[in-house]
Amino acid sequence: MGAGEIVVNSIDTDGVKKGFDLEMLEAVCDFVSVPVIASGGAGCIQDFVDLFHALPKVDAGLAASIFHFGEVTIPNLKKTLAENNIIVRR
């Protein structure tokens, strides 16, 4: 039995709100054949846009505090991603 997907959290960027660890995520994406979920570092909507443009192999981006503290809303995130030609669930 193997993993169906992998959540990759960079403790170096977790909670810092300065963007995802793109270098580490790229290395993981190049090594595994299952979906990768990026976690740790999201501070604004642009961080998600940068993630998906830089690493189209990443299947999802995970965040918490930016939503809990109202810094970003999910509808605004989805709208911006769609406007940037990034596929989102509706």
UniProtKB/TrEMBL annotation:
Can you name one GO molecular function term for this protein?
A: lyase activity
Q: Name one GO biological process term.
A: L-histidine biosynthetic process
Q: What class of enzyme is it?
A: lyase
Pfam families tied to this protein: His_biosynth
Determine if Lyase is one of this entry's keywords: yes
Q: What is its EC number?
A: 4.1.3.-
Matching entries from SUPFAM superfamilies are given as:
Ribulose-phoshate binding barrel (SSF51366)
- Regions crossing the membrane: none
Q: Could you list this entry's UniProt keywords, alphabetically sorted.
A: Lyase
Write down what this protein is called. Imidazole glycerol phosphate synthase subunit HisF
- Species for this entry: bioreactor metagenome
